[in-house]
Amino acid sequence: MQLYNTLGRKKQEFTPMDNKTAKIYTCGPTVYLYAHIGNWASFIFADLLVRSLKKIGGWKVKWVTNITDVGHLTEDDVGMGDTGEDKMSKTARKEGRSPEEVANFYIEDYLKDWKRLRLSEPDIRPKATKYMKEIIAFVDKLVHTNYAYETSDGVYFELDKFQSYGTLSGNKLENLQAGSRIKINEDKKSPHDFALWKKAIKQHAKALQTWDSPWGKGFPGWHIECSAMSEKIFGHQKNKPILDIHTGGEDHIFPHHECEIAQTGARHPETNDFCGNALSKFWMHRKFIMVDEEKMSKSKGNFYRVEDLTNEGYDPLDFRYLVLSVHYRTQMNFTWKALEGARVARLKIIDFWQRLNQFIPYQKDNMKNDFPRLQAEDFVEAINDDLNTPKALGILHDTMREANIMIEKQLLTLEQQKQLQAFIGLFNSIFDIFPDQPENIPVEIHKLAKERLLAKQNRDYEQADKLRNKILDLGWEVRDVKDGYELRKL
Ligand SMILES: [Zn+2]
After folding, report:
1. Per the structure, how many domains does the chain have?
2. What CATH number is attached to the domain comprising 23?
3. How far apart are CA 384 and CA 378, in angstroms?
4. In 43-139, where do the E strands start and end?
5. Closest Cα partner for 449 from 425, 426, 469?
6. Between the N and C ends of the chain, which has fewer C-beta atoms within 10 Å?
């Protein structure tokens, strides 16, 4: 399988480092507000990766996606995420709830949508607040090895000490310093040094979640939890990155992932020569999504949630389909029209699946035709090529078009039907877009349809009509096809 590695910016052959299990870490949400469709597009991408590695690559996967239930300062959009007010505390105060209540509320909503979008369950969903001991020990180690220093308001990572900073994003230190918009904190050695720990003092006096540490009461910076938790969960082996693949949204590349790399790199300096990165071998990112050709922003009110889509009558799986119909490295533009297109395309596949399963093939297998061609192989090849889902979908739709003609003309054989069913099964093991309860045809209806077919074959048309009406009364329509029947729910 070829995957595009943001680190190095090229496609590379992927094999898990231990040849068995792919270790994957995905940056999860900060639970002080609702997850929006941009976040979900990124998680759908991570789910696609996990499923493809399992179903197509044939590897095992250990997948971790965290929940940030602490901190996150408000001004991260202009700097390294370490100025401004603690967002969890801000929301808690605004909503008159404790940070734990805020976190639990948004976690519940997040997990509900996670399920509705059919995202695979990760193996572990660590919460930052449960790893405070590891986080503090990690920071302490960096202080003791002189990669970090204490100031009056916190502990900062000294970027000058980490020469390879900027490898992932291309934001080298010298470029950052020109054009800096960051407020100067007098205590910091360089304006770009980022916070590992913030002290609960002065402007942060209102922080509601604080922990005891060697630097007094405080709370962790934004980036440290991912370095600390991935190391604790996956373990560190000498001269090897901790993870096979680290994923996130394009917006995570800088500063978040760059800072994660610096932290873990500084903790294991002996690993830094090894592909320049002690944390992860591959870095993969889902490109931003736009809404009506515009960036999502609070002021434009286009931070749609899954709830907004279902309120308009869409199935969350329509959105899942839409996201997967665009390559993850292509910018996706969300519009209601595009979502409608995805709904129609998805229904076509569901219809086809039902039609295929209900079709009774012409049993005399003496027909020669070259259908189906090697769709499954082509499909696998598309996924293997950096998860090319639009191409894979194209193969599916082409196949359906041809198969529909074959069904219409009664040319599909039992063997071909089985092959197509296996192909759709493979497709759905990755895309997972069928409804929760497929419209299974009750055994009773099938029995009546078969009786009717028999009556017709015996030229007992009166009995056949009676049975047709009985089936109609039960809410199903039976349609004649050569030597068989099709059933459709009314
Ligand atoms: Zn992270």
Report:
1. 3
2. 3.40.50.620
3. 10
4. 60-65
5. 469
6. C
pLDDT digits (tens, 9 = 90+) for 139-178: 999 999 999 999 988 999 999 998 888 889 888 777 666 4
pLDDT digits (tens, 9 = 90+) for 71-84: 655 444 334 555 55
Determine the distance separating the centroid of ligand 1 and the alpha carbon of 33, expressed in angstroms: 17
Q: Is residue 300 part of a domain?
A: no
Q: Are 261 and 279 in contact (CB under 8 A)?
A: yes
Q: How far is the CA of 375 from the centre of ligand 1 (A)?
A: 38
* Total Cβ atoms within 10 A of residue 272: 17
Give domain status of residue 291, yes or no: no
Tokens of 409: 């003309």
The C-alpha atoms of residue 292 and residue 287 are separated, in whole angstroms, by 16
Domain span at residue 409 reads 306-431
- On whether both 223 and 108 belong to a single domain, the answer is yes
Q: Is residue 297, in this structure, part of any structural domain at all?
A: no
Distance 169 CA to ligand 1 centre (A): 15
Instruction: Give dist(CA 263, CA 227) in Å, integer.
Output: 7
Ligand 1 centroid to residue 224 C-alpha, Å: 8
Amino acid at the residue 3: L
Write out the E strands in 101-193.
Answer: 148-150, 154-157
Sign of CA dihedral 47, 53, 54, 60: negative
Residue 80 to residue 258: CA distance in whole angstroms: 10
Note whether 274 and 360 are same-domain residues.
Answer: no
Does residue 399 form part of some domain? yes
Distance 255 CA to ligand 1 centre (A): 10
| 256 alpha carbon – ligand 1 mean position (Å) | 6
Shared domain for 180 and 272, answered yes or no, is yes
The C-alpha atoms of residue 341 and residue 333 are separated, in whole angstroms, by: 13
Q: In angstroms, what is the span from residue 317 Cα to ligand 1's centroid? A: 26
| Residues 93-148: tens digit of each pLDDT | 788 888 888 889 999 999 999 999 999 999 999 999 999 999 999 999 999 999 99
CA 291 to ligand 1 center in whole angstroms: 25
For residue 430, give the amino acid letter.
I
Under the banding of pLDDT at 50, 70 and 90, the label for residue 179 is very low
Q: How many whole angstroms separate alpha carbon 122 and alpha carbon 119?
A: 9
Nearest C-alpha neighbor of 333 from the set 56, 115, 37: 37
At residue 470, φ and ψ (nearest 5 deg) are -65, -40
